[in-house]
Amino acid sequence: MNVFEEGLRAELTQLRAANLYRVRRTVRGRHGVEMEVDGRRCINFCSNDYLGLAGDSRLARAARRALVESGVGGGAAALVSGYNTEHRKLEEALAEFVRRPRALLFSSGWAANLGVLRALLGKSDTLIADELNHASLIDGGRLSGAKYVRVAHRDVAGFERALRDAQGPGVGSRGSEQQTLVATDAVFSMDGDLAPLPELITLCSQYGATLLVDDAHGFAVLGKTGRGALEYFPPSPDSRPSTPDIYMATLGKALGVAGAFVAGSETLIEYLIQRARTWVFSTAPPPALAAAAHESLRIVRSEPERRHVLLKNVERFRTGAAQLGIDVDAPQVPTPIQPLILGREDKVLALSADLFERGWWVAAIRPPTVPPGTSRLRITLSAAHTGSQVDGLLEALAAGLKRLAHLDVAA
User: Fold this and answer.
1) Are strands 210-214 and 180-185 parallel, antiparallel or unpaired?
2) Active-site entry in 87, 134, 217, 385
3) Which of these, 5, 141, 322, 383, could form a disulfide with 306 (CB 3.0-4.6 Å)?
């Protein structure tokens, strides 16, 4: 074995010893609540398919139609020959839904965040970011070369201090004044809590900063009509801006498909078309995926009961957990993400394995996805879950935690 292979093997051994080694599970058939995973039938409580649309036959029919009409692949980047009518129709529908002038499709949320941050920022600029932002925002900010300022989670005063410190004359990355950009998740993917968006919008307006909101886990879920985290908050009572400059959301969570989009002004989207490298140099997504996402968006608009059922399931879970003494670190806002923080990696792995043996799939989340000492089960609810399934998971959790406590005592 050569030195390169030996180094990789040694690091893998360290990951196993620290209970940080990750393995994939193989799903057979359609993704949904009831699934076959590694040959075992189980109930899925670790998916981002919040509205239960990933296996909806109407999305499959829309994709099949587009497959017949447009083929399988995009063929080239969108600026070459890959921009299909399915892409254009979806972009127009998304822009209208989130009430922004334009939208631009990306192959993934990761590509969207990296593309936006690298296009807009340079070494003379400043990025101010919540410390628990998604990895794509972290990596995009670092790769941009901008000064990277981390702010404690949801700390409004900390954001204001950072914005105040960033003020000052100078030339930015595009020959104009230095740019200050604030980036935040809307719903934090591992904790399920919300960013203080109204306060951040006000601060950015006050200090002349640009605001990027990643609403991957709020889009199509939160708000009266499913328009996301921004719709969840009441509109500004005065003339201050009530929306961020840059809005990003994904199509692979509540919409059940794949991809992402960025929405904003005409100028922003045209600039990204010229300068977002992850868009310019990527093959366009398959038209069939755009057609499926377009159909999913139609269902989101026409079937608000899906969101109502989802919120009922979230409330049922939270109420049941409290009654059973299960200490779920539930956020104040009833989002589908309900973390059960156990701290130690061995404990969360043991509980996840115990649940899986009994037919409940809840993945163990460990560093570096979450900070050290906060390993957890990330329990996610769906509109497709039944009340009896939610109750069954709660009973299994209570029993599993008791077994885990006995093991701790024995140890």
Assistant:
1) parallel
2) 217
3) 383
Query: Does this model's pTM top 0.90?
Result: yes
Could you say which of 47, 70, 107, 189 is catalytic?
A: 189
Domain endpoint, select from 283, 302, 321 = 302
Both 49 and 90 in a single domain? no
The reply to whether 231 falls in a domain is: yes
pLDDT, tens digit, 9 for 90 and up, residues 36-70: 999 999 999 999 999 999 999 999 999 999 999 99
Number of structural domains, the chain? Answer: 2
* Matching residue, tokens 């460990």: 366
In the residue annotation, 124 being an active-site residue is answered as no
Q: Give the span between the Cα atoms of 269 and 79, in whole angstroms.
A: 14
Mean pLDDT score of the chain:
93
224 is catalytic: no
pLDDT number for residue 410 = 47
Q: Is 70 a catalytic residue?
A: no
Out of 108, 134, 144, 253, which one is annotated catalytic? 253
* 379 in Cβ contact with 317 (< 8 Å): yes
